[in-house]
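Attaching the record inline, Q. Sequence:
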Amino acid sequence: MGERLLCGAFVAFFLIVGPMANGPEPCSAQAAGGTQVAQPAVVINYRERPRYPFDPQRLKLRPAVDGEIRDNEWTPLYTISGQPVNGTVYLNWDDENLYVAARMDSPGWFVTNFDANGDGWLRGQDNAEVVIAPVGASGVSPVTVRLLDAGANRDAPVWNDVVVDPTSIVIAARQAGAGQVVEAAIPRGTAGLTLRAGSQIGFRADFLPAATAPAATAPYEPHLLLDVILAEAKIVAAPGLVPKLTLEDSTLVPGQTLHAALDLSNQLDRARGVRSVTWSGVGPSETYVKLLREVNVPPVKGLKTLRLRYSSPLPDSAVPGFYQFVVSATLDDGSVVSSTASFSIEEAFSINLESDPPEVALIGPTQVKLQVTLASPAPGFKRAQVELKPPASWEVKGKPVRSVNVHRENGVAKVHYIATIPSATQAGDYRVEATVTWHGRTWTTHRTIKITRPER
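Structure, as predicted:
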């Protein structure tokens, strides 16, 4: 009887983690000899917010969800300590996903809760629990998502564990020494999740030991979360002085120039002296942007804003990806303010080759229409060379090599070809290639056209 009372006492604080086929009962575990032993009384106290130091500014950044947490790839939220499972929680975002990750010192459940509108847990239909199972766990779902529906009746909320498809969340997890690394991408729109700079969401993450068999919290159990703000630039200010880093364009291509501006806003009525300002890349971007330290910086006048500018060309060899850039200012009293922003490097061109028709029933010489589509995120006018490479026996009408112009940022250009397939061509799959050349670089794509011959 005492054991049953213990289970009932803490079951409301556990989170369900999906169906546990052939698994242990919520308040017990199967010992090696087959006897039932009590689970450790490890609970998540949702009536208290996490008390770990945290930074509410969540930087816009796209990490790779591959089970590896690299230097400067993620932004830490807080570090859990003094618990059965300890480790660091990471949180970032971009226009497509909310990114969460954890580096844990032992295998366990990774439990996250978020309030998409930041308006309180028992409000609306925007509160969700995402629970990721321990690495190597068997008989349980790898990820479970439940939505708390308090929209119809706040006094009688209900859990819904089918409205969100768990497979829509990308998960990468692996063992790391005695512990584990877990990464996840939660798509925009999940539980009404809107991802834009300046918006506020509620969030918390907790760990439970792998041996624990989680059970559901009561629907009316309030979950106290931390308020975090989605930011395109992360700011560290000093009393009376606020820095703001602005990138002219946060999407660049190799060879393009990174332009940035720093605004130092003085909220005091006296001038603030600045010893130096340092501009630099963070982590991998250190090799792409120049390190610049300015020492002849004028003071920031009282109640005024000082603007400083920076530019650095990216090398043509820059690898596409997401990067961070930081500027810091050391003040006359030795204090330091800084602002960090993210930018992405993308390929100068993306190309696509389409065929009409995609499959050819060959009776005699047959024409097929081919279209090469180029898109470029880079601003400004660009003239590229497009070449179509069909099988050797095919005849292309006009020149196979043509020039094409892309006039503006995110511009699209299309090149049309007509190729004739000889009547003697045998049935089978034939590869047609298209290449785009610009500034000595080449992008290639292809299309496979299936040819059939009617039976005689």
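Residues 1-40 have pLDDT under 50 and may be disordered. Helices lie at 2-10.

More tomorrow.
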